[in-house]
Amino acid sequence: MDEVEVVVAHSERVTVRVGEVFLKIDSDQTHLDVEVEAMELAPVPTPEVLWRKPSVLAIGRVPGRPVAKLGEPSTASPAAWAAAGAAVRAVHEAPLPSWPGETVEKIRSDLDQECAWLIDSGVLPEDLVSRNRRIAEAALRPWTPVFVHGDLQPSHVFVDGNEITGIIDWSEAAHGDALYDLATLTMGHPTHLPDVLAGYGAEVDLDLIRGWWSVRSLSAARWLLEHGFDPDAPGCEFDVLRSAR
């Protein structure tokens, strides 16, 4: 009999694997609704939806392995990273989903709250937070909305050799800035940014990518700490903030 593997578990979501089946249990049914509809819309390989019940989604396993994981060196080839960039471009060129995304004003307001918490709680030095808040401001400008994955960590992009076999975890998909997806994919793996952009096939302002690296790292820190994750692990969010220039 297959053992039950806990893939991720916190107060908002639990994902377990039994053999070739993943069960996603979410406290917010909206996340599962978005995930299913986004996978139907996405013009890239996604997991097969096996069945749904209230608060539970069963999906099939995606073959291959993640292109990378945050905090770990990537063993994927430059061609695999370029394929990931091409897949992201395909998503961004697809029709917009029916639901909106966050506004620039909302992102800025939330970011300021998180920066204040990081300083007041003593989690990070004020000068580090302030420097990254300045860098982040570059990304917080008007953009033309596209269909974004919304949480395109490299661990969510699966490859087999140089081929994309699937992109998982679409619960944050919405309207958004194309550069946010590119930044999320390459955060912690900046040496692979040129490969991703080669596959993406468009000119990109690197200051905006760096801005989104700072936005994501600052904004995620409190949630990660409160849910049992370590943003101060080598190569993770706090290292990204320390290396920002």
UniProtKB/TrEMBL annotation:
Taxonomic superkingdom: Bacteria
Keywords: Transferase
InterPro entries documented for this protein: AGP_Transferase, Aminoglycoside_PTrfase, Kinase-like_dom_sf
Gene Ontology MF annotations: transferase activity
Pfam families hit by this protein: APH
Ranges for domain Aminoglycoside phosphotransferase: 42-202
Protein's name in the database: Phosphotransferase
Species name: Microlunatus elymi
